[in-house]
Specification:
- By secondary structure, this protein is mainly α.
- Helices cover 88% and strands 0% of the residues.
- The chain contains two helices and no strands.
Length: 72
């Protein structure tokens, strides 16, 4: 459930970033390279954290399945 919440937050953040980039590309809002770089780094950390948590959860599930199948 926590993983799903983080995924949803990441999706919202990525959508916001894309909208902002489109507005900058269309010259609707001024380009702010520092702000973009900070947001990009934050997004990269969010993606890395989400993948690391997913990988750990997947490992735990496989360990549980192996444990249960070994008991049968």
């Amino acid at each position: 459930m926590e993983l799903d919440l983080e995924k949803n937050q990441l999706e919202r953040s990525l959508n916001e970033q894309l909208k902002e980039l489109v507005l900058m590309a269309e010259d609707v809002i001024p380009e702010d390279a520092n702000h973009l770089a900070c947001k990009q780094i934050r997004l990269e950390y969010m993606v890395n954290d989400l993948f690391a948590e997913y990988k750990e959860l997947k490992r735990e599930i496989f360990e549980l399945v192996e444990s249960v199948s070994g008991q049968a």
